[in-house]
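re: that complex we talked abt at group meeting.

here r the seqs, copy pasted straight from the sheet so there may be weird spacing, ignore it
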Amino acid sequence: VDFLTKLNTSARERDSWLCVGLDPVVEHLPVGLPGRAAGVVEFCSRIVLATAPYACAFKPNIAFFEALGADAFAILKDVVDSVPDGIPVILDAKRGDIGSTAEMYARAYFDELGVDAVTVNPYMGWDAVRPFAERPNKAAFVLCLTSNQSAESVQMLPVEGEPLFLRIAEMVASWGISCGLVVGATRADMIAAVRARCREQVLLIPGIGAQGGDLKRSVELGAWQGGGGALINASRSLLYASGGEDYAEAAAAAAVELRADISRCQPST
Amino acid sequence: VDFLTKLNTSARERDSWLCVGLDPVVEHLPVGLPGRAAGVVEFCSRIVLATAPYACAFKPNIAFFEALGADAFAILKDVVDSVPDGIPVILDAKRGDIGSTAEMYARAYFDELGVDAVTVNPYMGWDAVRPFAERPNKAAFVLCLTSNQSAESVQMLPVEGEPLFLRIAEMVASWGISCGLVVGATRADMIAAVRARCREQVLLIPGIGAQGGDLKRSVELGAWQGGGGALINASRSLLYASGGEDYAEAAAAAAVELRADISRCQPST
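got the structure back, here u go
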């Protein structure tokens, strides 16, 4: 089944457009968990288990796993394997490489790790996106307008009267629906212009919660007509909802609440 | 000692602006080498040893090591450790990440692995470069104009009358000399414009050899006034110069030749 169908099905079954970001930091794990590798796997897989009824996707950030050292890939694989069948996993890797290098990443992430999609950087053009986007049933999420402060200095450069990120959006639209876009909630007002150029694509929207992005406007402006397609990512606000031993239950409660908030903001049909 | 001094010293001592790229592919290793990990370490460290008298820098590509699986980082570390003191190592990682993620990469690459510089993607702006460039004695090489085919579709977009990559070059110039730039030899004619904006920075120039870039013009246009500063990278043409058991000697012979070609093209003072 293709990525978009899998995501749509998962979203419909859970009545949710919430994506749970998995960014584990060993120093922030609740006390009582075993050390390093085992602790991260237990923490993440319990978060996954608790939030899976309310999250239509999961997004592990590979850098947080790489920081764990030699067995990083094995730990990440255990976490990916803990995600129930039918829920797509988007690997946040922000890769931007070409040719055989990108091919190697695609093989490692899709075949060995078994994720469904990867985030990629558009600076090198289609060459860097294709190895991910052209895989059957897989997808690439292209960085378009990111939520960090200095993003503007590049992404808002004026290209023939419009900001660079809109030209990127236009390109991504031409690459087809196996490409989604990453658009930060911290720049919610600009999401409408991206959606206008990419009517059928999924927008992955980080930056609500800790980063202070505007959830309401992100969903209103980012959703498809009739709702859906604006995938709201939350990481820290769910992972560390309580910070105590009840972290999984607290994450689930926070996910239920956020799912409701997202639903409430969907455009009515 | 700061990165630029280390590189300059290495270049002067060896009378060379050649950078040897380490992109090992298990399937291409000469016969007679042990399997996977051990074979890659032996292959790369013998290449390093044989070419170190003629190469002012080495550039391992992290993706080629990651493809080796679980012990990728250990293998890469063995290869980095095989580089003689005084020769800088540039890790080709093309990372483009921010905040704590970029910090984690910087810690892993600089502190644990011990490399001197990392290639980074400029699409997210200074936030994604700073964690690498601001480390004392370390450096970041920012992708500016890459040698792949579809690079143009993004990097040549017109920003107020000039191509995007020149705006990136201008930004990098303002970030200081702990930032270098990556400019492909396949677009040698455009190197002059980058050099005009970044007079003191090092240009890392891949794309000669297998990719068919123009060595002569790359050095002529990319070098500092008086010569130097255009760091010519060669990978496959050295690594697989013979393809046989004499691969290290063949790589050394090819390095000697390329070093001479580079020297011959330096602008005279």
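couple things i noticed - Residues 247-265 of chain B form the longest helix (19 residues). Chain B touches chain A through 51 residues (CB under 8 Å).
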